[in-house]
Design a protein that fits this description.
Elements (H helix, E strand, L loop, with lengths): L1 H39 L3 E2 L5 E10 L2 E13 L6 E8 L2 E6 L41
Antiparallel strand pairs: 1-3, 2-3, 3-4, 4-5
Length: 138
Amino acid sequence: MGDFATLFLLLVLVLLVGLWLRLSRARDRAIQEARSRCQQHGLQLLDETVGLSGWRLRRFGDQRVLERRYSFEVSIDGNDREAGHLWMIGNVLTALVLPTIELYTPERTEDAIEPGHAPSGGNIVPFRPRDRDRDVRH
């Protein structure tokens, strides 16, 4: 009876170590994704790390799969700290939430202002009227 209990405990220990290694690899992949997406959007990934903040079962096709949520902090201008989140199934990024940032700031030059349109200020991006002759829908 003692040999069976020892074997069972050893098996549980091996399973726990395997699960820990698998979650560590998934976390490393999440760090790569967060770093890549922050760089793509001009954000700084603070502390260069992510933390597992939850998981949920999600229907994917006809299967239920485990989706992990990782949280991290980013900085827009180096003086702030904003929360970001990403969700992954396996090694695939399924969702990403980054703080609202101004992705495009129009240049304020006299050439850029069209006649009849007032220059915009702040974070307002001016829209140009569509050229209806070129915008033909089929």
